[in-house]
Amino acid sequence: MRGAAKRYARVAGYDEAYQEACAAFLHAIATHHPDAAPFPAYAASRVYGDTRTSMRRWWLAQERTAFQRQSEEGSHEEWDEEPERKGPCCSAEGDSFDRVDQRLTLLRLAREARLAPREAAWLALELAGLDTSEVAEQLGVSPATVRTWRMRAVRKMRERALNAGLSLSDL
């Protein structure tokens, strides 16, 4: 895993590449069939292949954004602004009891979804009102890593909510 991370560290940084390699290794453990191939060969192939695929996505994103022009005023466009913070922790309108109820429901979903410690750390800081860059700074990781944690946490909580009988409109 470290070898794959070193190989692709120039693309997105060592930490991001290592995280992708670890995720690929866990996926290899989950999908390995003992009668198909020896595990070390399968895992090595899976780790290098999945890490390269992930880094290729980074390369393509960098190519697409490499030559973006700044507007004449030097500011960004409306669509590029961060949306207003909404949710159980940041909503200014509405009944405070509803916000507390939403927050408790969210925390219960998080507990039942069995979030990883880093995903739980993201959720706690998100509920404290921090944005992605502030969470990344506080945890000492890149914003892209925080977005990965958020994506995984939301997916787990959504699956748990749907398994509990909630509909998409309830979420």
UniProtKB/TrEMBL annotation:
Q: Which residues cross the membrane?
A: none
SMART domains to which the protein is assigned, alphabetical: HTH_LUXR
Domain (HTH luxR-type): give its ranges: 129-156
One of the GO BP terms on file: DNA-templated transcription initiation
Q: Name one GO molecular function term.
A: DNA binding
Region: Disordered, residue numbers = 69-93
Q: Which InterPro entries match?
A: RNA_pol_sigma-70_dom, RNA_pol_sigma70_r4_t2, Sig_transdc_resp-reg_C-effctor, Tscrpt_reg_LuxR_C, WH-like_DNA-bd_sf
Q: Which domain of life is it from?
A: Bacteria
Q: Tell me which Pfam families the record gives.
A: Sigma70_r4_2
Name the UniProt key words of this record, in alphabetical order. Answer: Transcription, Transcription regulation
UniProt lists compositionally biased (Basic and acidic residues) regions at 70-87
Instruction: Kindly provide the name given to this protein in its UniProt entry.
Output: Transcriptional regulator, LuxR family
- What is the protein's species of origin? Alicyclobacillus acidocaldarius (strain Tc-4-1) (Bacillus acidocaldarius)
